[in-house]
Amino acid sequence: MANWQMVLDVSDFWDKYPEELRLHELAGKLIERLNKLRPEVESGFPEWLYEFDNCMEDFEIFAEDDTMDYEIEEFDYRLSNLYDWADTSLDSEFGGRKLCWIKSF
User: Fold this and answer.
1) Cα 60 to the chain's mean position, in Å?
2) What predicted TM-score, i.e. pTM, was given to this entire model?
3) Residue 45 above 80 pLDDT?
4) CA 81, 63, 37, 33 torsion: positive or negative?
5) 23-37 and 72-86 are packed helices; what angle lies between their axes, rounded to 10 degrees?
6) What is the rounded CA–CA span in Å between residue 65 and residue 102?
7) Over the stretch 51-94, which tens digit does the pLDDT of each residue have?
8) What is the domain range of residue 30?
9) Number of domains in the chain
10) What is the rounded CA–CA span in Å between residue 16 and residue 8?
11) Burial of residue 100 (number of CB atoms within 10 Å: 0-12, 13-18, 19+)
12) Which of the 8 DSSP states describes residue 3?
């Protein structure tokens, strides 16, 4: 099993879509958690942090515009990018260090 460096816990609201939350509200809650999670690095700007910022910007588009509620495929694409970011390997070992576990249930 991977050694996850961070945990993004969205389990308290993830299953509330679509019954209780609209897509832009889900994105807003996701942004709140991502903002709390954003890592600080001591030096440089690693590629994975650049990708993290891109994911944040993608979800901010959804959070700020309720007309995006019908763009489910676009949201799924951005969610896939977030999962790819989270699965970034920080070493070359099998089952080694990975960036982030996304806890959705």
Assistant:
1) 11
2) 0.88
3) no
4) negative
5) 20
6) 24
7) 999 999 999 999 999 998 889 999 999 999 999 999 999 888 88
8) 3-39+46-103
9) 1
10) 17
11) buried
12) E
